Amino acid sequence: MPRHPDGPSKPASGLILPRRRFLQLAAAGAAATALPGSAAWAQGARPPKGTRKGQVVVGISQEPTVFNPLRARIEVDEGVHMNLFSPLWSIDAKGNLVPQLATEIPTVENGGVSADGLQWRIKLRPGVTWHDGAPFSAEDVKYTLDLINDTSFPAMLRSGHNLVRDIKIVSPTEITWRMETFFAPYFSVLAWTYIVPKHILGAGGDPKDSPFNNKPVGTGPFKWVERRPGDHIVLEANDKFYGEGPFIEKLIFKYIPDLTVLKTQFQTGAIDHIGLQGITADNYDEAKKYAGRKVTAAPLPFIEAIVLNNERPYFKELAVRQALYYGMDKATIIKDIFYDVPRPTETYLPQESWGYNPNLPKHSYDVARAKKLLDDAGWKPGAGGVREKNGMKLDFTTSTTAGNHLREQTQQFLQQGWQQIGVKVTIKNFPPAVMWGDFWRKGQFDTAMAGSVYSVGSDPDPSERLSSASISAKTGTGQNTSQYSNAEVDALLKASQNEVDRAKRKANYFKVQEMVRADLPLLPIYQWSMIEGVKSGLVGYEPNVNYRSNCWNINTWYWAS
Amino acid sequence: MSGFLLRRLAQSIVLLWIVSMIGFALLHLTPGGPLSQFTNTPGMTDEDLQRLTAQMGLDRPLPVQYLEWFGRLLTGDWGRSYRDDTPVLLVIGSRLGATLQLMVTATLIAVLVGGFIGVVGAVRRYSFFDQLVTVGAMIALSIPTFWFGLMVIYVFSVKLGWLPPGNISPVGNESLIVFLHHLIGPSMVLGLVTTAIWSRFMRSSMLDVINQDYVRTARAKGVSERIVLVRHVLRNALLPMITIAGLEVPTLLSGALVTETVFTWPGMGRLFLDSIGYRDYPVVMGLLTFTAILVIIGNLLADVLYVVADPRIRLQ
């Protein structure tokens, strides 16, 4: 089935913490040797290095078909990439950067980044080999960055990478470059940038036609075995993996397009882990009762909100935006339509982000207050009870993906609520490809119900969505689809992007969230979750809001005996 | 005969050209595009989107895009998937086998089961059996394939545990027995509608023949009822069924769309739905052209077989 940019359609509940915390991949090299060699295979105990048992079948509802990790891709492709390839560093579930192909995260203290943030020096892990046995070196890192910036190569994301200049290979294990301007989110961008092999892709010929695309070679915990198109992909353990694990012999990605069938196959045991797009919220209670299965509501970075088109004349008034927020019965929506699974939010950042401001004013559902705000602002009830002022009516449309039943129910509920305060809303939904095309990006909607990620991976920078320089309808670039424009917010965002000190950035982002909460360019409803599950004997699954797939740590998963 | 074939071939090419043009226009009339799935990716900027649009050639005028596609098709180049750059023919080829397995099995079920029901229904016209299967066929034709598929999984897999809950085979175990076990559910579902159709046509075709003079003559000569039915009635009644078989190709192809989705069967139907979802124009167009060719061949084959089976008919 088609999946569209606003991601999985049916959100779920709060984060359930994993049963035990795992050693961080950060110290993987050291940790592996530090593990007690006699570690028992009992429940909860981690298997000793080099022991592997069984296979894991991951069920997903879209088919991974893109295996060059730099190309345009979707979530399920990334789930495969993170097991075949390695980035310089990854992001753990707490938002910490964890070295992978780099030996340490570059900081001003360790000399990895100059004080102005422009000179970078990365030390690489020695002794790493590609799955075909060739040695990994700084040449591969340089080749990867060059390929992303190659104009003939259809790389997915170039932001951040396009600021890199003068890449120099100091030695096979050391590389330096200069940044045109400092771009703090680049640390996050690099955590999703998987390094590709120069000796294969750069061996001549167009990388688009390389056999690599159907038989990828990486440095990650699993090696490519085979793919049956339309059905499954088989990977096997990489016994030369530099990090921890893997503790299973085979990893299989099984494609099951229908969500009901996906759930049934999880129930009957045909799949061991139900990943994207998980179990629908209405089936959560039923799934919790499956024998021998554990289901988890994994948090996602998507924030569901009613996005207002702030260029519409009636939305230019703060009182109108506030009244709409007071007239929105968020608690009932979350409880009755979403089975109390997602968590309400007041901001655009996921609650797991280091930039998340927990001290924002709490929303309350208050019809009397909403009416008073509109009365005081001079909006008088007119024909049919619809308020109007200076010939302008509070009569607008709201749009979202057609066929998304939970969203459509939410719209109808909001429609009734807002009718009570004298606001007329007409529902006008479109198929995903229409909804999220120019209609959304170029600001042709009045209000839209959308789930979006406002941060850049683990980095809380929302410039692409909240800075006035990112209004695509005006500047031709950016994703500030609400057309929010606040000079103070712009200045804070700009300053934070060029700031090396995380504490200062955090303070700035707290302020930005306060201002956005006060201005209400969008009416936040909740943060998404996705209900995923594993068989009870499978240990190690841990949701990570910083990645688009929770397959990020399968190298540490194992079967308890 | 060869003149007929040549004429049909020429007609087919014109037909293909029209089908592809309508398909292309409809596909591009549907707003949105191959890039809309990326627009909400964290970190995706507008510059990145515009660059990808240009790199995919989507910023060119539509007629130019169509003519380029059609020109290449004539030279045997079916283009490449927007999503993963794989040549379209390879993508289709990798899914063709699975769909053909389903279609052939479903057709066998329809011919054998539907044929049997139709023959018995015609011979014992208005009997209890005939009434029962008439109602049964109406129900089979009306129930949604999607729902029926889920019911089969629920009853035979979840409740009874007799059949696997879909999939073509478990990973790593692709023996023939296992494959046939997995084939039962989806071919039953896909075959249901065709079986119902087949039984109705078979019944009326039999009834047409049964009332012919030569059947009465045969009976009057004292030929045994068994031989009358098999040699005189059935053989003549099967003739129009050749055409029905040819016309069944589109029904089976569209049924496969749903069946393959419910039973996670890696065939062309699912590929078609996925590709439409991704707005993977080259693959959608490739599948459209390919299935159009299949339908044309199916009809052509039916016409030719008709002549082979019945020497009285001449193709002009």
Describe the structure.
The complex is a heterodimer of chains A (561) and B (316). By secondary structure, chain A is of the alpha+beta class. Helices cover 25% and strands 20% of the residues of chain A. Chain A has helices at 28-34, 75-84, 138-149, 186-191, 198-201, 259-268, 284-288, 318-326, 330-337, 367-376, 405-420, 432-435, 438-441, 463-466, 472-475, 487-497, 502-519; strands at 55-60, 89-91, 97-99, 119-123, 164-171, 174-179, 222-228, 232-237, 250-255, 273-279, 293-308, 343-344, 380-381, 387-389, 392-393, 395-399, 424-427, 447-452, 522-535, 538-539, 558-559. In chain A, the strands form 5 sheets. In chain A, strands 1, 7, 8, 9, 10, 11, 12, 16, 17, 18 and 19 form an 11-stranded mixed beta sheet that branches. In chain A, strands 4-6-5 form a 3-stranded antiparallel beta sheet, with helices on one face. The two termini of chain A are 37 Å apart. Chain B folds into 2 domains: 2-74, no CATH class; 91-309, MetI-like fold (Orthogonal Bundle), CATH 1.10.3720. Helices cover 75% and strands 0% of the residues of chain B. Chain B is built from 11 helices and no strands. Chain B has helices at residues 2-29, 46-55, 62-74, 88-123, 128-142, 145-159, 176-210, 213-220, 225-262, 268-278, 281-309. In chain B, helix 10 packs antiparallel against helix 11. Chain B starts with a helix and ends in a 7-residue tail after the last helix. The interface between A and B is large, with 78 and 59 residues.
Binned strand content of chain A: 15-25%
Average pLDDT for all residues of chain A: 87
Query: Regarding quaternary structure, how should these chains be classified?
Result: heterodimer
User: What radius of gyration of chain B results from the CA coordinates?
Assistant: 24 Å
Overall structural class of chain B, as computed from helix and strand content, comes to mainly alpha
